[in-house]
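Record type: monomer structure entry
Structure origin: computed from sequence
Chain ID: A
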Amino acid sequence: MRTVEILSGGEWVTTGEWIDVHDPADVRTPIVRVPALAAKDVTRAYDHAARGFAVWKRTSPFERSRIMTDAARLIRERADAVAADVTAENGKTLAEARGETLKAADFLEYYAGLARQGYGTLLHDVRPNHRTHTQREPIGVILVISPWNDPLITPARKLAPLLAAGNAAVFKPATETPVSGLHFARALHDAGLPAGVLNVVTGRTAEIEEALLDDPRIAGVTFTGSNSVGNRIRRRLADRNVRFQGELGGKNASVVLADADLPTAAKAVVAAAFGQAGQRCTATSRVIVERPVYTEFTRLLVAEVETLKVGPGSDPATTLCPLSSPRHRDSVLAHIGRAVEQGATVLTGGRADTEGERVHGCYVQPTVLAGVTPDTAVWRDEVFGPVLAVREVDDFTSAVEAVNDSGFGLAAAVFTRDLACAYRFADEAECGQVAVNTTTTGWDVHLPFGGFRDSGTAYKEQGDEVLRFSTRVKTVAVHFGAPEQTGA
């Protein structure tokens, strides 16, 4: 079986213990193994990061930019091999994996450009002969914890801006999908990143959590994952001067108004709901339809869903990939079963897909549920799978109320030909990302990204907004006039 080393202190190293990684398309045989680090190895990673930060924060921004640009080039050159590993350990289709790989390179290139710019503002000063400005500086060593669903693009989204600003990082990829993030680390290493600036930690969370979160050298933690884990991290950091950036859960809604282009809306909703088998934080999982078009839209929606082809991500014909693990598959099926018990009707799907060789994988049929109410658990709980719930409402006002009747607030979309409704929706939807006549997914690297309420913290990701998390502001006043003369 193939083994993969981890990057620590500028060297590729292994340990005596290993973690097996499985392909969710066929879980019978491990495909690769990675080191299972111990707590002492994590502490050593922080030692390296502290030394790396001392070097990197003084490295010319132009040199940082060069290294990141070269790393982006290497990822593009290796795109086929990287995408194959993303598919193998995560399950997503090759087309999705290749898109993720190229987008990771985009993040490096974008922040390589920002690294060349000064971060600050020239300010007026009330005192004569003074010039005052603010400047942004890196905060130090940042712990990066990324999820299994986007195992390459999420590390890129987090690491590229913090490295561009001059920080160092300890990076913990998801246990289920560590190889993708290691490709990102290798590209940076091969591009000339100084030793210790980026250190990768693979291991079983229960065995290394204390060493990961309690190290006194941590200046910030950026985490993407479940609310339960995010809140546990937040509480653990609460009495320390450590910044926390959390991108947490979502229960994203798409609204279809009576004047919408229904076939276009159906295609967009299906793309947003079932891409990556619904395993996206921005995936549409609720559809709210005005009553006059509910029957016709639902017919179009189900017809579109039934064109999806379930299969392994390595098959070019596949349009719906397996879920990430047997445990997650079983969780999604439990959500469906509970919805049916609570009165929901299955319009299509609703079961595990065990046809032929798929019996060995983590497949769930693409599922559309009707007959749900605001009290149905599937309408409120994050399922994170290929499950879409549909409700009808009376009018625009009721639709917005249904969107906002959620503890989450990440993304929402509206489909309408009415410009007034579009802008009203943008103003009234209580979420961080709003789309009009397009999908809830697909936010590019330069667009600030993050949710409201339980979907995340105040620190946004992406764009230049993310620099608020990974930099601190210093105000500098310079007196450039001649010193005052005193009488003899």
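Annotation 1: DSSP finds 15 helices and 22 strands in the chain.
Annotation 2: The first helix runs from residue 39 to 56.
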